[in-house]
Please model this.
Amino acid sequence: MKEFFDITKPIIIAHRGANLLAPENTLEAFSLAYEMGVDWVECDVVLTADGIPVILHDRSLWRTARKRVRIDTLNYDVLKDYNVGRYFSKNYKHTLIPRLQELLELAVKYDRGVNIEIKPAMPEYAIATAKQSWQVIAPYIDRIPILVSSFEEAALHWYRENAPKVKLGYLMSSWHTHWQETAKSLNAVSIHCHEKLLNPKHLSALKLSGYIVLAYTVNDVAHAQTLWAMGVDGFFSDDPKLLD
Ligand code: G3P
Ligand code: MG
Model:
């Protein structure tokens, strides 16, 4: 297995895969990102009604599948035939919602990393989503770099207690005054921040505490270069070639 983070250069994590060039969170977008050279892809993981971890960002299937239905009300057997490529382009006629396991198999094939963002459809599903995802992730943990993150702290705490080998990333969309104690109690390796939070004061506090700092979502080259010069270690980007 490759080293976890290569910090000799900016870490680029393809956000939902190469989603500017292929439908987001699909095997097509993930393979393309790996083909374009990134070491990491990011995906959003949610449970179907019957508890299968699948990759989808929104709770509703309207934006990507044109179905007015919520993911947590559908069994996998129904969901597996939904097309999530046509919203992007008519060329994607057979593009389906991947199971988490399918992405992990793809990552093994390319020998690259996966950032699995646990994204429960409702906050009360945080533990179930963590548990069911771990069932899928466990066989891969020593085979490829896997980084689990979530906005739901309960999901991360579940991982810390039940899956001690898993590396965790702590996500912040707004500045949490309790970030330091939470990240420490999770033994997080990285902090994933909305790029707007990364002013010099916040960044120096994060770096002084020894964390890898990743900014999301950065698609502007000049902005990425400024953040890198300030000490940010890497970027979630819709463009896998952001800094090439
Ligand atoms: O994990 C980083 C980023 O993906 C968080 O925001 O809404 O794109 O999942 P979102
Ligand atoms: Mg995400």
